[in-house]
UniProtKB/TrEMBL annotation:
This is SOCS box. Residues 200-214 have a biased composition (Low complexity). It comes from the Eukaryota. It comes from Musca domestica (House fly). PROSITE patterns: SOCS.
Amino acid sequence: MDVCFELLSMMIEDSDPNIVGRDGSVPIMVLLIPLINKDTLQHYTHSMKVCFVNCIRILLQHGANPNCSYHHNLTPLQVLVFTVSENFTLSSDTLRQTNFDFIKNILLLLLQHGLDCNQTYQNILQAVMDMVRNVRDVSDLNRIHDLTLTLIQYGADPNIVLSNMTTGGAIYSNEIARFGDALGLTGSSSESNGAGGAGTVANSGNTNGNSSVGETAATRQSLGDTSFRNSFRTNSRYLLFYYIVLITKKDFILNDPDVTFTRIILLFYATMQHDTLYNCLKSLHNFYVAQVPSKKTEQLIAVISSLYRKPRSLKQLSRLAIYESLNRKLAQNVNKLKLPGMLKDYVLNFDK
């Protein structure tokens, strides 16, 4: 507590909360960077955590910039997301939850003071999806969902298309690449053979007429294959597709009888734009339909097929329209809406 009083005293005396130190750091980053070490975080007592949060609050209330950076590339948001990811490697579920609650409180404090979810070199929701690599059991998926929901409520874009420069190896695995190419190459090859056979027969009769028809059909097929391959490559870069590829690498997630993994899928289903969502679901549906049936992915395929065939309700679409009209910044603006409390709660929480 003495630290808080001293910090408050300095702020009252007009100290600059954004002053840059010799190493390029600002006060908020000096506080946050030690959190990266999960061993340090484990030894924080409750009173230490309260003091820590109060120090952050004092700095923010006196003008500290929540979008500052350390050496121009490390931001408070990245530090917190990395800390949560590292926290998943701890063996104790109770400790993971306690640490997560602490980090989330800091995140909410920063978000309430203007932290920009989209001001990072890498899409922050992609970094959150990458946490799937570190999960120890399905309860960690609830924490990822909680974090994803919070970021979406404060403006993170669920429709982002991941670029080649930032996307991890999972989304461009050999399995997906082979599948996407095979769909075009196999179809093109078989149609070419068929067209060639028809052309040979046609040449014995009407060469000019049937030959041009065969060539036109082959050209259309080729253009269709190219278009399909291109659309598949685009759709496989959406965050929803990325998340599903990541969870398929964890058998215990797919075999969960409570299908906890669906919470994040449903969150994307509720927040993505119409064309983006259904193009992604179509590619996912086609991808898994083309696979050899597997007990492991049975539950996942059922979820994808159900969502692909089921249009969103008018109520869900109305919520999405409000969400988009507020530039996806629901948390900051929901209280300005002239709606009953229950409707505000529905608009803000996409689980319902």
